[in-house]
Amino acid sequence: MKFSLAWLRDHLEGTASADELAAKLTAAGMNVELRERDGDDEVFDVDVTANRPDAMNHRGLAREAAAAGCGTLKPLATAVVEGAVVVGDLAKVTVEDAAGCPRYCARVVRGVKVAPSPAWLARRLERCGVRPVNNVVDATNYVLLDVGQPLHAFDLALLAGHEIRVRRARPGEAITTLDGVGRSLAADDLVIADAARAVGVAGVMGAANSEISDATTDVLIESATFDPRRVRATARRLGLKTEASHRFERGTDRAMARTAADLAAKLIARLAGGEVAAGVLDSDPEMPAPREIAFSLARLSAFVGCAIPAEFAVQVLAALELAPRRAGDAVTCTVPPWRMDLELAEDVYEEVLRHFGYENVPAELPLAAVKPGRRLGTWPLTERARDALAGVGAAEAFTYAFVSAEVETAAAASPLAQRGGAVAVANPLSARLAVMRRSLLAGLAEAAAGNLRRGADSVLLGEVGRVFFARDGGVAEEERLALALAGSVGGWDAVRAADFLDLKGAVEAVLSELGVTGTQWRPAAAAVLAAGEGAEVVQDGRVIAVAGRLADDAAFDLPAPVWVAEIDLAAAAAARVPAFEPLPRYPAVAADLTVRHALSLSYAELAAAVTAAGPAWLESVAPVVRYRGEGVAPDEVKTTVRLTYRHPERSLTQDEVNAAHFALMDRLGRELAVSFS
């Protein structure tokens, strides 16, 4: 933001040099990023943070300079010479939406002569990046840059009924703004209207139907306070960014509305002649009681980390016009109406600290009792989940919690995502970020697809995050883990395309790390997964995970098959402290068993039956291969499993193993109607 050095000095008593002003403003947090000579003046380009709209004008920055020790702030001369005609006889103001416009002030100047502005005024505006228009419009812009209050000048003769009404836009109402663009208004938009139609978008831009022209003789000056949220929403929806909206979005000084109207009327009468009508049309002249913030000087020093002299703190706060009142260790400040950013005692601490100088605070660690920290809430669970992802070799992804409605609907066609309605974002940044996700699959699938398009041969991504549901009149959140597998798998000498079994192995490894036991896999008919290529994991009758190939839905736009899984982390068991198990003292005996069985018999059912049929010293059952092809009926499959036998107290003989093995086969044949050929 650009400031004129000569203009700043108009508000300051003192002889501080340009170098001193720039250095002290920067040290106080108003970073002077660039300095340029412009004739007999110098232009400062200052980085004013968004939370300091009070410093986005020359008087506000001069106040900061005074607090930094660069002089004393001059009083503001606001006296106006008024004529005999009363303003109430010339115009009328009605505020129909007081929430959107807490205060509206208007003054009238009659008999003006519109002409180009004098050179001194035009040069000052140009140095601050504002194009001169004419003496009336330039006067309002000058006051804006001077004291920070946006103003607008109407041609009083063009206002129907010589009336101003501040109201909400009507259904289907449209307006042509000063930039010549026709715009459709929404019901939440606040407009400035006359007796017949809208003549301005409140806080954003005026309309072409009432602008100042060479034929203007009578001017109505608008100086108002508008709801920042309403201005921000309207400006964003209309795609309009103006000097006025930039300030109104951040909040303006309600008390300054009247002062700025006086300053503008005074300047217009000086530049364009005419007579200022007596009085001000003010919708709400009563100011709310000022806020007060009390704090402890000892607490200030403790907060900063070093001793702050009490006299220095009081002096800084007085220079910032916070009217500090000290009673021993306690100080009470009255927050002026232009400091919307001051709410807590910590905010006041920062005001003192930035003028004290961050470089003057010693770099010392605070004294504190040392004891181990502890993660709270869901952090322990989500950290275990991330460790589980790392354990299966997945690269962790972080995707947006906001997705498009189309993608969200496609990803939500899953048992895990049907636990509540979709949560729409009230003011989305774009259509692609319009809905809160109910599933992690949408963002993860997009990330996997992006990697494939950029030439990745193998993709294994994982994410731990929250999903959101509209439920019981509120928003419910759940922790989830998701995986996305695509491309090729295997070693360099055995590369093949990823399939369901690769995904299933990764999911089972993650579930094992999370302590999830007693699960069953069964076919799933979820629309988010391709038909016949999906499964759901069930624990105690509740679906805790889904896995399979992502459906060929246009919403996902996948360049290749992507295998995905999503796990409800609410099913994770509590973390257990690892316990040492002694290494086996006796050798194991392994034996393979090939079982011919119906295709409808799942591997989980077969493994459970083998375990139940085996002796107590059957240590493990592991898959080796499944075969379908020549010599096997279409509705059958041959599954080879490896059985590991180990006795905890002695070595097994081959005869014992053979006897147990054949007994197991006999029982399986009787109970499952399987064969071993």
Oligomer: single chain
Superfamily (CATH H level) name of the largest domain: Phenylalanyl-trna Synthetase, Chain B, domain 3
Q: Quick one: overall form?
A: elongated
Output the structural class: alpha+beta
- How would you characterize the largest beta sheet? 8 strands, mixed
User: What would you report as the Rg, rounded to the nearest angstrom?
Assistant: 37 Å
The CATH class assignment of the largest domain is: Alpha Beta
Could you say how many structural domains there are in total?
5
Please count the beta strands (DSSP E, at least 2 residues each).
35
Distance between the termini: 85 Å
Could you tell me the CATH topology label of the largest domain. Phenylalanyl-tRNA Synthetase, Chain B, domain 3
Helix content: 25-40%
Secondary structure layout:
Blueprint: E1 2-4, H1 5-10, E2 12-13, H2 18-27, E3 31-38, E4 41-47, H3 58-67, E5 72-73, E6 82-86, E7 92-95, E8 103-110, H4 119-127, H5 135-147, E9 151-155, E10 163-168, E11 174-176, E12 182-184, E13 190-193, E14 198-201, E15 205-206, E16 219-225, H6 228-238, H7 243-248, H8 256-272, E17 275-278, E18 281-282, E19 292-296, H9 297-304, H10 310-319, E20 325-327, E21 330-334, H11 345-356, H12 379-391, E22 395-396, E23 402-403, H13 405-411, E24 423-424, E25 435-436, H14 441-453, E26 458-471, E27 474-489, E28 496-497, H15 500-513, E29 519-523, E30 529-539, E31 542-550, E32 562-568, E33 589-598, H16 603-613, E34 618-627, E35 636-645, H17 654-672
Helix pairs in contact: 3-10, 4-5, 5-8, 10-11, 12-15
